[in-house]
Amino acid sequence: MTTGLQLGHPGIYPLGSREARQEPGFEPVRLDETGFVGVALRGPVDTPVLVASWSDYVRNFGAFEREAQTPDRLLPYAVQAFFAQGGERAWVLRVAPAPDWTGDDAEAATASFSIGLGTPNSSGSLPESPGLAAASEGTWGTGLRIRLGFEVLQSFDATLDDDGGIRLPAGAVLAPWSLLRLRPLDPPGLPSLGWVAGERRTDPHAGGRSAVLAAPLTAPAGGSLRVDVVTAVLEAAATGAGQSERLTGLGLGPDHRRFLPEVLASDSLLLRATGNWGWNDALPNLQLDDIPVLPVHPGEDRSSGIDFRSFYDDGPADQDSLDEAVHRGVDAMGRESRIGLLCAPDLYWRAAPPAPEVPVPVPVQHAASCSCGREDPCGGRDTAQQDPDYAPTDDVQPGLDARDPGDLAEIIRRQLRLVQVAELRHRFVALLDEPAGLSLRQIHDWRTGFDSSYAAAYFPWLGVPRVGPGRPALVQVPPSSFAAGIIAARERQLGLSWGPANALAAGAVLSADVVTDATHDALHLQGINVYRQERDGIRLSAARTLSTDPEYVQLSVRRLMTMLVLTLERQAQWLVFEPNTPQLRATLTRMLTAFLQDQHRRGAFAGGTEAESFFVQCDDGLNPPQSQGLGRLVAEIGVAPAFPLEYLLLRISQDVDGAVLVAGPEQEGGHA
């Protein structure tokens, strides 16, 4: 007889014992989430931010706007390409100049604004007055349009108690540091403003409550008055970006439940609070007019200082992933445990050299053939600088040029470090862009510098229409951005075992290089994934890694093995502190077998049967008593990953009667 169990209608009742509990199962981890590291218009620096759509990216980082006299930021084009292919989740990190850059720091490059509230000191200045600043550095903050106003959300009639407080009617709630506008009705009096300091019980038995004011009213007790509850409203709009925010119900006191600086910190993507907002003696006027918000310092563009140190930490890549130091660029993104792919679309960004000194013009004489019509000496040189109608173009200095040996060496240096981070983390694959403008021989030399299954390379760069003014009409976008979206979409639709190739690059309209069959042959054999211009668009033709290990040539195999390792590593934590018994080892064997059976049904393995596809071993031979005494539990798993089909060989012949025969190499032949 079982005690302590209440039985109702007849039936079977589980006792809740360990044996009756359902065993946990393994679910494959997602590897479609992609990290993007690059140069953005705005947004937090060196902080991965999850974006789930293109509009989500625009809200956090802006769009395609160019700073004056800077190259195109490729990050927005890359993220847009990712979502256009069917990608669902991207982690975006904005880079900035390293902290020891010789230019102005981030605070000096952030637009700031003063608020017309506060108590002037003896000199008339407001050193501790509250202020606002753009949420991040950049010239975008200069165009912010800000309004700080007030509105009345609720009004009610009340009376004064004996201590100068306000007897609250039923249902009225006044949070601490609520701002009130008080208008005496009986007897009539002048309106005033006051802060709510708290609340007290006036009649515990009847539930009476009174609001305690920071400065008690001196009117006689029992007098009636009209109470308006005033809250602040902050509106901000980013000029040209089409983004605006409106935050309501804000309080100006530090104990208010929606204290303005705290709400900005949690809810605003455009503004943050600066200065001292802890005052309690500065009030708006009785008409609740808007508070003046005046610009103090414009935002500045620091993208000219972005270089290798913006993308990587100082020192080697093998740092402790659990340290609490501040990390930069790729090293910061590499610590995000949810990404399965990593792209750096602005990795070729060139730091601007120091501005050259302007030479002092040397007067020269007119040449006999001069026809410029000017009276000052020109030397007969009809240069653009001397043309009164000359206007400079908006062409700007491009990124690193692989045709220059020094630039190519810097590109390789940055890409090698990217691959080092991927190999260190063993969680994601770094997607590289083959440097544009190289000959086949130079591409071969570039390729020999990489040997890793945690890296894949793509060629050529793909042109997409430019958004906004500028020349040329197309922007060359890194091909890895399209590949990331294709890989992510293929995983979500078909699974990891399907090679992410033979897919169109949505949005790409032109290939930067014409790829012939001979070029394609050479690049494919080197493990470089090529886009080909087809009649229906530009199509990705391969999915290989940069590994020379034959077992890890295919990208799908590398990602499948990574998924298996991460799934078991993350979802087997419940085994810790479980008693190491035969029952536990049998349970683990069943769980692993069920997980691998599911992967087999999805086509992840090469074998025709389960026995040919995988094995699981977790017996006493692997777990002898001495190993168990050390608290160890050992299980061995073997799998035979399925390799994507890349070549289909057919033999075509003509029979004596004129019939065409088509057969594979292992067949005798067949009629077409």
Automatic annotation (TrEMBL):
<dbReference type="InterPro" id="IPR052042">
    <property type="entry name" value="Tail_sheath_structural"/>
</dbReference>
<protein>
    <submittedName>
        <fullName>Phage tail sheath family protein</fullName>
    </submittedName>
</protein>
<feature type="region of interest" description="Disordered">
    <location>
        <begin position="1"/>
        <end position="21"/>
    </location>
</feature>
<feature type="domain" description="Tail sheath protein C-terminal">
    <location>
        <begin position="548"/>
        <end position="653"/>
    </location>
</feature>
<dbReference type="InterPro" id="IPR020287">
    <property type="entry name" value="Tail_sheath_C"/>
</dbReference>
<dbReference type="Pfam" id="PF17482">
    <property type="entry name" value="Phage_sheath_1C"/>
</dbReference>
<feature type="region of interest" description="Disordered">
    <location>
        <begin position="372"/>
        <end position="404"/>
    </location>
</feature>
<comment type="similarity">
    <text>Belongs to the myoviridae tail sheath protein family.</text>
</comment>
